[in-house]
Amino acid sequence: MKLSMKSRYGLRALIDLSVNSKNEQVALGGIAERNNISPQYLEQVFASLRKAGIVKSIKGSQGGYFLNKPAEQITISEVIEALEGDYRIEAEDVPEDCDYKAAPETIQKLVIDKVNYELEKILTGITLYDLEKEYQTYVDYGQDMYYI
Asked: Rounded to an integer, what distance in angstroms lies between the CA atom of residue 84 and that of residue 96?
């Protein structure tokens, strides 16, 4: 699995949003600026996150974005699926009329299924709140390069 820039930027922006939207919505331009992400690209990212129900927006001069549910309830799996689609390794392709099914089925069972199981376990076990807490440890020690 390759974590694309879209997912990386999406996760950065969501950490920023989680940190900064405790009392009010956050302007997309501010998120883009703090994280050195193109505002136009971030709009595309947030369109996918909005469609998936991860974020909500308020239009107008005082508008901006906020999380649609608590950070504790937003899994990294959910975010990556919203931005990438299915992130799991595709199943082994074995034609029905194939006489050599043992090797592909072995690969499916011992490699693909196990990797997908562990990946799912990891990505559903980490929440946006976990990322925010870890981020705060860097901020507390003055190690943040982005100053969200």
From this structure: 30
| Cβ pair 65, 26 in contact under 8 A | yes
Position 40 scores a pLDDT of 97
CA distance 92 to 106: 10
Give 127's Cβ-side CA count (13 Å radius). Answer: 11
User: Whose CA is closest to 76, among 8, 134, 2?
Assistant: 8
What is the C-alpha to C-alpha distance for residues 119 and 123, in angstroms, rounded to an integer?
Answer: 6
Residue among 28, 6, 11, 31 at smallest CA distance from 85? 6
Q: pLDDT band for 142, please (50, 70, 90 cuts).
A: low
